[in-house]
Specification:
- By secondary structure, this protein is an alpha+beta fold.
- About 20% of the residues lie in helices and about 30% in strands.
- The protein contains 8 helices and 19 strands.
- The longest helix has 14 residues.
């Protein structure tokens, strides 16, 4: 457990003209008003009022937000020197997505936990990430990519169950829409980690801004998976079933409910829609009326393979239970036997022509 005697305050700045508290130390604050939170925190170190006012601290926070200023100010008090520190948290374009604030007695400061900003672009259906994301626990420098799909992000999270809420916000960035949640990273070669993710819709940018904080994985109550969830996933794995949530309007795989289909190249793509052949994306979208009526449907589409070809795959689609605010469907991908492929000619994807064969092999094994 990290030392939280004098915690860092994280003030999100994801929306122009607005600021709220994302967290105080390991505690999520879910967009709480920052002046009130600041007053409560300063009440624990009243000595700072000998030299500073809440307005002075507010000016420091504002300077960090607007000018990306890093402040380390020593404050003389009757109880000895205190320190005020602010740190900007940058997004992929160098914008300030949050301000970190710490006020306390000199020599008692805790290390600043890692945090980065990110941004979702609806037009490309990708999340832009700064290189600083590799400072977060659970992600290695070799795993860094400047842009990833939402399905790739979900694949990095373990036992997460708020996919529909996230997809609603991302695919319909309405004014005022905001979300905060915590998730563990998926098991892998990196140590177990836990992230706090804060999102605000940015209709002005046709997207959303993110704040991702590194938090202590031991600070959260361990989640126990339901026997039903574990059993169904294992049954699908053994049966060779490959199920995903597909966003109909934009013809993209939003999340794999099972292990990803091994013959489909769905990750590390310039555009997530490249997973489906351009001529077949409309075929998927045309299923929307039947799905909204509660019917199941089936079709054949060409999907991108790990060799760079588009080859036919049978897709069985079903309504999303409960139906989110956006047209999501459940899709089952079934590989068509090799001797049936000639019925639908394959086509090599042009975007792979510039990718070295070694790079393609490395990301798909």
């Amino acid at each position: 457990m990290r030392n939280s005697a004098t915690p860092w305050i994280t003030i999100e700045t994801l929306l122009p003209g607005a600021m709220s508290v994302a967290s105080v130390g390991e505690t999520a604050r879910n967009f709480a008003g920052w002046p009130r939170v600041l007053q409560r925190q300063l009440a624990r170190t009243p000595a700072v009022y000998d030299s500073l006012s809440a307005a002075d601290i507010g000016e420091a926070v504002w300077a960090t937000r607007t000018r990306a200023a890093t402040i380390d100010a020593t404050i003389p008090t009757r109880s000895g020197p205190h320190v005020l520190r602010t740190r900007p948290v940058f997004g992929p374009a160098g914008d300030v997505h949050a301000v970190r604030l710490w006020v306390g007695a000199a020599g008692t400061g805790a290390p600043e936990p890692a945090a980065v900003g990110a941004s979702w672009d609806l037009a490309s259906q990708t999340i832009a990430l700064p290189s600083g994301i590799t400072r977060l626990s659970g992600i290695a420098a070799t795993d860094y990519a400047p842009r990833i799909s939402i399905a790739e992000l979900f694949q990095q999270l373990s036992d997460f169950d708020r996919h529909a809420e996230v997809l609603d916000l991302l695919y319909a960035p309405e004014p005022g829409a905001a979300l905060q949640f915590e998730a563990d990273t998926a098991p892998g070669p990196q140590p177990r980690a836990r992230w706090r993710i804060t999102l605000r819709a940015r209709p002005d940018l046709a997207g959303a801004w993110w704040l991702i904080e590194d938090i202590d994985p031991d600070a959260a109550t361990p989640r126990r998976l339901a026997l039903e969830w574990v059993g169904l996933r294992e049954a699908h794995r053994r049966a060779g079933n490959y199920l995903a949530i597909v966003q109909l309007e934009h013809a993209g795989i939003a999340h794999w409910l099972t292990d990803p289909a091994p013959w489909i190249r769905w990750d590390r793509l310039p555009r997530p829609t490249d997973v489906f052949h351009p001529d077949d994306r409309r075929r998927l979208a045309e299923l929307g009326d039947r799905i909204r009526a509660g019917d199941a449907a089936g079709t054949t589409v060409r999907v991108l393979t790990t060799t760079g070809d588009y080859l036919p795959t049978s897709v069985l689609v079903y309504p999303y239970p409960g139906y989110s605010a956006r047209p999501l469907i459940l899709a089952q991908f079934v590989r068509i036997a090799d001797d049936l492929w000639p019925e639908m000619p394959s086509q090599r994807s042009a975007f792979l022509d510039w990718v070295p064969d070694s790079a393609v092999a490395g990301c798909c094994t």
